[in-house]
Amino acid sequence: LYAGLAAGFFAYSLVTAGVVWTLTAALIGIVLLPIVEFITHKYVLHWLELAKTSPTAQFWNRVHYAHHMDPKDTRVILAHPATTVLLVAVLAGLAWLVGLRPIAPIVAIAFALFGFYEIVHCACHMEGEARSAYMRRRRQEHALHHYIDENRNYGITTAIADRLFGTRIVDKKALKRSPTARNLGYTGEFADRYPYLKKPDGE
Q: Which pLDDT score, from 0 to 100, does residue 130 have?
């Protein structure tokens, strides 16, 4: 799906925006990918305030909370296509606001990079031995995010932003298990006050 959308927008971009701007936009997207991943994951997907109303709680549940509740649940590993379109629309809107126009190349590279993100993320949760050193690193670091400390290793495709902001960790022994790794803070009095989501067993 995302490959097809990316290809279509790239073809349209080459005709309407030209080769130079299309390639420049692609380069900008690749450079910004680690930062976009980090900001989206840390400040949107882990934003507990989303649990305060029923509509936003259900949105949060689908886009991330249910995934932390059960990282092996294949139904919630991949993002819902509507969420992806929303994210791409926001990125395109921001690009337009700062003068990166025409935005078709931005949309094209956004869909392409999100497709890559989904491939890596899905592979991080699959059973079996990873075939490359890159995937072994990504899987190991993502597992620490899910099972040890949700405040570490926000990057999916790369650890660049985690290195930059001091949130990368690779040594499991250096971490103490966070009590909110599964529930992202949706527990106790907060969960009782805003009872819109399922709590992990035993809570």
A: 87
Q: Is the dihedral of CA 155, 197, 90, 10 positive or negative?
A: positive
**pLDDT tier for residue 203 given thresholds of 50, 70 and 90:** low
> 65: which 2 tokens?
């909370």
Of the pLDDT bands very low, low, confident and very high (cuts 50, 70, 90), residue 131 is confident
User: At 57, which amino acid appears?
Assistant: A
Q: Could you count the other beta carbons within 10 Å of the beta carbon of residue 138?
A: 22
**Which of 130, 134, 138 lies closest to 155, judged by CA?**
138
Q: Are 150 and 181 in contact (CB under 8 A)?
A: yes
* Size of the chain in residues: 203
Cβ-based burial of 104 (10 A; exposed 0-12, middle 13-18, buried ≥19): buried
Distance CA 112, CA 116 (A): 6
Asked if 107 and 10 count as a contact pair (C-beta separation under 8 A), the reply is: no
Tokens of 79: 């993002």
% of residues, the chain, pLDDT over 70? 98
Exposed / middle / buried, residue 192 (Cβ in 10 Å: 0-12, 13-18, 19+) = exposed
| Residue 46 near residue 153 (C-beta atoms within 8 A) | no
pTM: 0.92
Distance CA 64, CA 11 (A): 32
Which of 76, 38, 37, 44 lies closest to 198, judged by CA?
Answer: 76
Higher pLDDT, 127 or 32: 32
